[in-house]
Amino acid sequence: MKKTDTDNLSVYQSFLEQTVEKLKEENAYLKNVFKHSEAANKKLMESIRYARLIQNSLLPNPDDVKRYAPENFVIWMPRDIISGDLLHSELFDNGFVAAVIDCTGHGVPGAFMTMIASTVMKRIIKDEKCQSPALTLKRLNAIVQSSLQQDTDFALSDNGMDAAICFVRPEKKLLTFAGARLPLHYLHHGEIHTIKGDRQSIGYRNSDPDFEYREHQIEIEKDMIFYMLTDGFTDQFGGQRNIPFGKTRFFNILKENNHEPMDVQKEKLVAAFQAYKGNNECQDDVVVVGFKVKDRIFGDESDGLIDRRKGFRDRSSDRIERRRNIL
After folding, report:
1. Which end of the chain has the least Cβ crowding within 10 Å, N or C?
2. Spelled out in words, what is the top-level CATH class assigned to the domain 60-318?
């Protein structure tokens, strides 16, 4: 072998050795970065999972709602670990308020908005004793807008929410509803009826703080079933043509199962949703609420004794564990 070839081989070998050393250094650096990233991600996920526990604590206790609506179900499926959708309820001596709220965003941003919505709802309904769904929406609109300073020219955000609120007075067999872009559906004699919400969202920069939401009153009849939901269920893409689930398919499931117990209706809805979604990711957070007001206002006392002084069902003999009826 010529000296020139030997020199070239030495140079090439030296180059390879240097390259290998650099690759080892870069590999060690990447392993270190991955290790720290993995640790940071673990901490982040632990924080988000704990935030889910906090958010769960804001959800209504179904046992409280059962005082007036013994048959009910809740489907609550966050797109991410935490949700931008909110359920809210408050009890009064003469009835109860139930609300479904769809906040801007998903995950962490959406969850922050639900905290704002929950706090404001408690202030309006519990502290101020407001029983008017329309007035509640108007107050919620103004307070959210001012709290986020979205009623100013220097607002940094443009966030808000849609909502459906109803106040049920069993003794009067009356349900009062108002909505901000979210509807109320009710099933009666096998037919679905829909009351649309006003086309005015809550809290955004362009939301009118003086907007007067309309109230709708429904005389509650025996075996009526009421439903409120956010748009995550019907907007979910899937099926063979990869199109939204749609309202028609949702209504058909309700009509086909209107004589089934509420827990069975919930199972049917969830099964249909999951089958339709298939391998697709969830498009949005999902909330569906269904309830039936029947017991004492229609003289149906087969499910327990009634305390005539309070008007509440006496469940002292068979207390059930207070747990969240959440999917």
Report:
1. N
2. alpha beta
